[in-house]
Write a structure and sequence with these properties.
With 508 residues, this protein is of the alpha/beta class. It has 5 domains: 2-62, no CATH class; 76-178, Beta-Lactamase (2-Layer Sandwich); 184-361, P-loop containing nucleotide triphosphate hydrolases (Rossmann fold, 3-Layer(aba) Sandwich); 368-444, Helicase, Ruva Protein, domain 3 (Orthogonal Bundle), CATH 1.10.8.60; 458-501. The longest helix is centred in the last third of the chain and has 20 residues, at 458-477. The radius of gyration is 35 Å and the shape is elongated. The protein starts with a helix and ends in a 7-residue tail after the last helix.
Length: 508
């Protein structure tokens, strides 16, 4: 049939531009000239014995497939790049243009190694025929910087030999947004902060107002007063609510590790640095809020770097030469006397004034005892549901005991006391179920329990001694780093011991 069709075209001097042949089907693309009568051509083709019907089509099947593929590539949210066996770029979709900041017309036909970098995983795929998944790439040129995640697969011939490669690219910010949307912790609002006293109402009113802006907030208050809850509520009431809220405890990590976590690092910045480097928490919080808890624990070196962020809105990754712009609202918190630290030279004056743009002072629980009943009811309901225990309520005598206590550990301590009581009670929480001090715990045990308590193993006695020493030193020094120096151990050792014994900084 194909030969018959070609004879007709030749007979009438019609130029053939393309032809696709399948069993029982021939598709042709002809050069359209003004004097060609398509109806006449159809009649002549139908005279051939193997031609059953003739129809006009808009595109050849291959052209239609190519158009479909191109539409998919253009609509894809991921960047798509394909290269041949020589590494020459054959496909470069609009998303790739956006991620790499290169126009397709400037990329197509160019060698990938020369255009971008000679050590890209895509080029290794051509050589080895092996794909790869989720490689982090950072490309720096004289004018642009690209940071993306890429996965690639080889293009194989019929014998399984690589003749090219195709790769997908995802901008790192889009990936982080996706991760955040799935891992985002439950956020609270001001309405969920429990309290009816005038003091807490006034603080919430101030916080609601300042949430609408972008100024730095410094939350002051004793340990356990709810500083992070207020920070989260400020974020949720701000225009940044749909962007990340990143909490960081400045006392929880050694200085060098905290620096790399906050600011990120370049590939090869130090032994063990991840290939491709790592973006820091400041970059992850871009367009959102970063909460720096225990800001008084920052070393002088990190105080300088934080000051740079607050002044210029730029960060420098560990091992990097250039700075990266970030748009982050900073909320800091501390239970320490920063003014005293400034006088002793432990905290920079200029950083203090940058942080203290909007100060918020949270009252301790002993100054808002009117809230103890409502907080107690809240914790009873919350903890009993979590523990699947039915608690009818709390007796008047027990509530009076809570009201007469000074709560050095504030709301966190009240929560712990209620949870302990729920474990001990049967139906109603009575005064005897409320163990407010460690010495009460031993006195609440019966004789058999006390004897067992006194016959502890050596390792338990050592653990108790360590726990007591750490608590006492933290109380005297006020700083985890200073406590570590006083005890002659590393900062990391103190942190690990605090986690092991369930000690929170400030509870002492």
């Amino acid at each position: 049939m194909a030969l018959d069709v070609l004879k007709v075209l030749y007979r009438y001097g019609i130029n053939l531009k393309a032809m696709e042949v399948e069993p029982g089907l021939a598709c042709i693309k002809i050069e359209r000239k003004g004097d060609i009568n398509l109806d006449f051509l159809k009649e002549q083709l139908l005279k051939e014995k193997d031609v059953i019907s003739v129809q006009e089509i808009e595109l050849l099947p291959q052209e239609k497939r190519e158009k479909h593929i191109q539409a998919v590539l253009d609509a894809a949210g991921e960047g798509i790049i394909a290269v041949d066996r020589e590494g020459v770029i054959t496909t470069f979709n609009p998303a790739a243009e956006k991620i790499l900041k290169i126009k397709a017309k400037d990329a197509l036909g160019k060698n990938l190694a020369e255009l971008l970098a000679p050590d890209l995983p895509m080029l290794k795929t051509i050589a080895t025929g092996e794909g790869y998944d989720n490689e982090e790439i950072i490309l720096n040129t004289e004018t642009t910087r690209s940071h993306y995640i890429t996965s690639g697969r080889p293009i194989l011939d019929e014998e399984g030999h690589p003749i090219g490669a195709v790769a997908s690219l995802q901008d790192i910010e889009r990936v982080m947004d996706l991760v955040y949307s799935f891992t985002r912790p439950p956020m609270i609002t001001f309405d969920e902060i429990i309290g009816e006293s005038e003091k807490i109402k006034k603080v919430k009113e101030i916080a609601r107002i300042v949430a609408k802006g972008n100024s730095t907030v410094l939350i002051r208050g004793e340990s356990g007063t709810g500083k992070e809850l207020f920070a989260r509520s400020i974020h949720m009431a701000s225009p940044r609510r749909d962007r990340p809220f990143v909490p960081v405890n400045c006392a929880a990590l050694p200085d060098t590790l905290l620096e790399s976590e906050l600011f990120g690092y370049e590939e090869g910045a130090f032994t063990g640095a991840k290939k491709g480097g790592k973006q820091g928490l400041f970059k992850y919080a871009d367009k959102g809020t970063i909460f720096l808890d225990e800001i008084g624990e920052l070393s002088p070196h990190l105080q300088v770097k934080l000051l740079r962020v607050l002044q210029e809105g730029r960060i420098r990754r560990v091992g990097a030469d250039e700075e990266i712009p970030v748009d982050v609202r900073v909320i800091a918190a501390t239970n320490r006397d920063l003014e005293k630290l400034m006088k002793s030279g432990q905290f920079r004056d200029d950083l203090y004034y940058r942080l203290n743009v909007i100060p918020i002072m949270l009252p301790p629980l002993r100054e808002r005892k009117d809230d103890i009943p409502v907080l107690t009811r809240h914790f009873i309901e919350k903890v009993s549901q979590k523990m699947n225990r039915k608690v009818e309520g709390i007796s008047d005598e027990a509530l009076k005991k809570l009201m007469n206590y000074d709560w050095p550990g504030n709301i966190r301590e009240l929560s712990n006391v209620i949870e302990r009581a729920i474990n001990l009670c049967d139906g109603w929480i009575e005064s005897r179920h409320l163990i407010l001090r460690e010495e009460e715990f031993e006195s609440s045990m019966d004789v058999g329990e006390r004897e067992n308590h006194q016959q502890k193993k050596l390792k338990d006695l050592v653990a108790e001694t360590e726990k007591r020493a750490i608590r006492e030193t933290l109380r005297k020094c006020g700083s985890i780093r200073q406590a570590a120096r006083a005890l002659g151990v590393s900062h990391a050792t103190i942190i690990n011991k605090m986690r092991e014994y369930g000690i929170t900084h400030g509870e002492t």
